[in-house]
């Protein structure tokens, strides 16, 4: 076996891995390796040819490949070592990475620190259990996006899309622009899972109907999809008998959720969250194994790549500080708890004392749409501070800064964040 060693190994060369590498280098780490299983860097951004990336981070509107290119150039300027077409098979708890590629064969790479940035994958038809035969014409939305934008193939001409997450909304517009008839976007929940701007720009602007509280309950066709049965659902998300209707189509695109890719994390023995599917981390994005960090969509699924970058730079900086001995344990560990109307919150705890830190950013999602909400941060049973939000939508991430002075002066070891609907009125 080919044995190698690096100070910092980053698993994944998408936007999270690139940002973590760039930041770790700028913090003084020179011995960095990025391992990427694909033939190029950039991850899923390479097939996202629409604009809307970079408004927060760069202050300008970029396409996915343009956004990726900027970080690829930053990494290239810093001469960070990269292994493409290399599949990581295992990450061990003692920070060894086992990988394989066609040039070097089997690799055992010893690292002093590791950043996990493997991203996420789409849920499939099997994951949601749609009955019916298995004809051609059923695609995940991301697969269809790759076919059109990178391979030059058209998946179909008459399309139904199940799921109104951002990928589904963007693909509705993309299929329409390529000449397909998009019959409808169906959503199981009573609200869309996508950003408001995508509902407006991808559906409303092209008169594509969004049908809420509806789902596909059967796929018809033998060789090729010929249509789908659609049912309305009740408040428990169960199909309502005799509400079915038929839509003729030759293609069904599924945009039914994303799953963080944590098989390597599980094998390493890293503790995972049952809510996000990602590792449980402290404010440095350090997992339950010291010296192994996680960032990007492998940690929790983000709505904007700008937030992926922000979080991954934090993980890259923390990994550098860890390697340089710049992280010390705080006097007490503070749990960060998702309270009423909060779906999840990251980080899960604050455990470190870092010199010069001004605040810890808390990222969270609301459970359901709300108006005139008040986001309340509690120190045990006492209200620490609150923030008004005109609208809260599960698709849009909320961030709140927890100032360092407040962390130092906490009376309890438990910070709870909750949302009060109508509390801002």
Automatic annotation (TrEMBL):
<keyword id="KW-0560">Oxidoreductase</keyword>
<protein>
    <submittedName>
        <fullName>Pyridine nucleotide-disulfide oxidoreductase</fullName>
    </submittedName>
</protein>
<dbReference type="InterPro" id="IPR051691">
    <property type="entry name" value="Metab_Enz_Cyan_OpOx_G3PDH"/>
</dbReference>
<dbReference type="Pfam" id="PF07992">
    <property type="entry name" value="Pyr_redox_2"/>
</dbReference>
<feature type="domain" description="FAD/NAD(P)-binding">
    <location>
        <begin position="6"/>
        <end position="300"/>
    </location>
</feature>
<dbReference type="GO" id="GO:0016491">
    <property type="term" value="F:oxidoreductase activity"/>
</dbReference>
<dbReference type="InterPro" id="IPR036188">
    <property type="entry name" value="FAD/NAD-bd_sf"/>
</dbReference>
<dbReference type="InterPro" id="IPR023753">
    <property type="entry name" value="FAD/NAD-binding_dom"/>
</dbReference>
């Amino acid at each position: 076996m080919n044995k190698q060693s690096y100070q910092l190994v980053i698993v994944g060369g998408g936007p999270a891995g690139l940002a973590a590498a760039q930041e770790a280098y700028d913090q003084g780490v020179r011995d960095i390796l990025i391992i990427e299983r694909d033939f190029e860097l950039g991850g899923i951004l390479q097939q996202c040819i629409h604009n809307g990336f970079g408004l927060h981070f760069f202050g300008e509107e970029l396409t996915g490949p343009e956004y990726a290119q900027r970080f690829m150039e930053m990494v290239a300027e810093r001469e960070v070592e990269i292994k493409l077409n290399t599949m990581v098979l295992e990450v061990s708890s003692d920070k060894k990475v086992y990988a394989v590629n066609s040039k070097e064969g089997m690799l055992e790479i010893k690292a002093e620190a590791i950043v996990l940035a493997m991203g996420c994958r789409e849920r499939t038809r099997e994951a949601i259990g749609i009955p019916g035969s298995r004809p051609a014409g059923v695609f995940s939305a991301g697969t269809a996006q790759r076919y059109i934008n990178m391979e030059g193939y058209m998946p179909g001409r008459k399309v139904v899309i199940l799921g109104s997450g951002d990928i589904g909304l963007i693909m509705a517009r993309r299929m329409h622009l390529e000449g397909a008839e998009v019959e409808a976007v169906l959503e199981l929940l009573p609200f869309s899972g996508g950003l408001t701007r995508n509902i407006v720009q991808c559906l409303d602007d092209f008169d594509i109907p969004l049908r809420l509280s509806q789902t596909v309950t059967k796929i018809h066709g033998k060789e090729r999809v010929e249509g789908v049965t659609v049912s309305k659902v009740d408040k428990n998300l169960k199909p309502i008998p005799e509400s079915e209707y038929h839509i003729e189509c030759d293609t069904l695109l599924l945009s039914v959720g994303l799953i963080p890719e944590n098989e390597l994390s599980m094998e390493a023995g890293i503790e995972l969250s049952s809510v996000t599917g990602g590792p449980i981390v402290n404010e440095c994005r350090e997992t339950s194994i010291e010296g192994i960090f996680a960032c990007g969509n492998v940690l929790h699924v983000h709505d904007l790549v700008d937030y992926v970058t922000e979080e991954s730079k934090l993980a890259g900086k923390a990994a550098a500080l860890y390697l340089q001995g710049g992280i010390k344990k705080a006097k007490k560990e503070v749990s960060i708890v998702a309270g009423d109307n909060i779906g999840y919150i990251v980080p899960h705890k604050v455990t470190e004392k870092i010199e010069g830190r001004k605040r810890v950013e808390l990222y969270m999602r609301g459970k359901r749409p709300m108006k005139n909400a008040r986001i309340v941060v509690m120190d045990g049973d006492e209200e620490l501070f609150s923030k008004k939000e005109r609208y809260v939508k599960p698709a849009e991430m909320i961030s709140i800064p927890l100032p360092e002075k407040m962390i130092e002066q906490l009376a309890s070891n438990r910070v709870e964040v909750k949302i009060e609907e109508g509390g801002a009125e």
